[in-house]
Amino acid sequence: MARGTSKKTPQVPPSDLMPARIEPCVAMLVDKPPEGPDWAFEVKWDGYRLAVHVAPGRVRIITRGGYDWTSRFPSIAAESQQLGHATMILDGEAVVLDDKGRSDFGLLQRALGRKPSMHDPSEIFFFAFDLLYLDGRDLRRLPLLERRRLLEPIVAGRDGVVRLSEEVEADGEEFFRIACEHGLEGIVAKHRGRPYHSGRRPDWLKIKCARRDSFVIVGYEPSTVPGAVGRLLLAARKGEGLVYVGGCGTGWTYQESMKLRELLDEICTDQPAVALRRKGAVFTRPVLVAEAEYRAWTQDGKLRHPSFKGLREIADDPGVFDLSTRWPRK
């Protein structure tokens, strides 16, 4: 070895610590798909947003709100350990498919429920659409194009419960039209060149075939049928408070209505969360959220023809409609 020189130690890239939780990237709602080759399109799944954390000997399944729901998705947890990598974080959606292959949030809730259902947890699929961490490397700083390139060999072509959410090579407007014709909830557009950012960002956009949002349940009107709910009383956020936006009286079966009544009777209150006087109404603490599909808003700020689509806890649904930041479309 020549004088004055020394053997260099090979530089090994440091490992990125695996995050305990990653706040998910949330798509912004827009009226129409974006244009241009920088955008990739996918089906908008109607289910529970989950992050699947795989580590040696352990899998954790974390909800959008940060809850550990591993025990509720045993099939997804078991299969995720067989994907060929020691550590990774998959971002995706848990869904149950109807007889036409469309995701259905109501079917998913029944499969996760305690009562007998035509669907059991083994029929819940996880459609992975992003890869955030892999074998000691945090991938969030990479553009979506690169993250998808790493994701696809792991989950593409699988016929188990863990599957790939396919990108669709199509014009956005045409894909949206076809999605609506086939009864899908809508589509998602994602910018191929952007890194992964937590929170609601314009890097991801969602375009819905029908208007569908989350509203806080602040009470109910009893049904003429004993033990059932006639109408849910719904509210949207506004500043630090809530504003009544109307009642919803359709979208459930008789059995579901009875179950709703049981849940709501457990959280009754004498102090309404909104300024509302309605004879016969039963008011509840604002801890549950209803997903509702509706046609439009009325001139006085009420939902037009809302239909109940599912129930969530408010702590796990930060996306409650906010009148302070979103102007209702008539």
Question: What is the number of helical segments per DSSP (H or I, 4+ residues)?
Answer: 5
Gross CATH architecture of the largest domain: 2-Layer Sandwich
Rg for CA atoms: 23 Å
Distance between the termini: 80 Å
Protein model, in words:
The chain is built from five helices and 18 strands. It is α+β, with helices and mostly antiparallel strands. It has two domains: 25-208, D-amino Acid Aminotransferase, Chain A, domain 1 (2-Layer Sandwich), CATH 3.30.470.30; 211-316, Nucleic acid-binding proteins (OB fold (Dihydrolipoamide Acetyltransferase, E2P), Beta Barrel). The strands form four sheets. Strands 3, 4, 5, 6, 7 and 8 form a six-stranded mixed β-sheet that branches. Strand 11 (211-222) and strand 12 form a beta hairpin.
Strand and helix layout:
Layout: E1 25-29, E2 39-43, E3 48-55, E4 58-63, H1 74-80, E5 88-95, H2 105-112, E6 125-134, E7 137-138, H3 144-155, E8 162-164, H4 172-181, E9 186-191, E10 199-208, E11 211-222, E12 229-238, E13 241-248, H5 254-265, E14 282-283, E15 288-294, E16 296-297, E17 303-304, E18 307-313
Parallel strand pairs: 1-10, 6-8
Antiparallel strand pairs: 2-9, 3-4, 3-5, 5-6, 6-7, 9-10, 11-12, 11-14, 11-15, 12-13, 15-18, 16-17
